[in-house]
Predict the structure.
Amino acid sequence: MNIKPVGSTNIIKIYNDNKKNLTTNKLEKKNDSLEISDLGKSLSNLALEIPNIDNTEKVEKIKNQITKGIYKPNPELIAKRMIDIMRGREL
């Protein structure tokens, strides 16, 4: 086994080498980039094609029912819609 003594000059040299690496890494400028796939672009266009539906009357009716404590959601319909959305059948 060969054991070499560690001198203070070796430690200083290693420190200075690491310091040089840190300063050169700071000077490197990296640019971020983003690419949107064709599928993403088509989904963006799809959102523009969907007409804006005004549900304010329906929402107010449900709010009033909730406030009065008479709102009874249909759990079977909710479960069916959740499954359809998870399977991708509906947006």
